[in-house]
Design goal:
Elements lengths: L2 H18 L13 H9 L9 H8 L4 H6 L4 H4 L2 H9 L12
Helix pairs in contact: 2-3, 2-6
Length: about 100
């Protein structure tokens, strides 16, 4: 599956999950990450630390455990670009086994 197909599939699932809003606080909205971070996740260039991508990721930091524990997001979170973005933004992607 290509990155574009995977991201499109994840986007559709994300829209559904945001509409359902299962167990997450109102401010946890993974859709906020898509526009500013998409090109960095699918490309080879990390975002600058002061980019909109990093700012939104920091805003969503408290939501990351909910995202990593959601099986629908596993293919997206396993993409190599996710680690590059997290490192560039000084964010640690939590281990779902240690999230509470």
């Amino acid at each position: 599956m290509s990155y574009a197909s995977l991201v499109a599939t994840m986007l559709a699932m994300t829209i559904h999950m945001v509409q359902v809003n299962v167990g997450m606080a109102q401010e946890c909205d993974p859709m906020k990450l898509v526009p500013p971070c998409y090109s960095f996740v699918t490309g080879n260039t990390p975002p600058p630390p002061d980019s909109e991508c990093c700012n939104v990721l920091h805003d969503q930091n408290k939501c990351l455990c909910g995202y990593v524990k959601n099986p629908a997001y596993q293919p997206f979170l396993g993409m190599p670009g996710i680690k590059t973005v997290a490192q560039a933004c000084s964010i640690t992607i939590p281990d779902p086994k240690t999230c509470t």
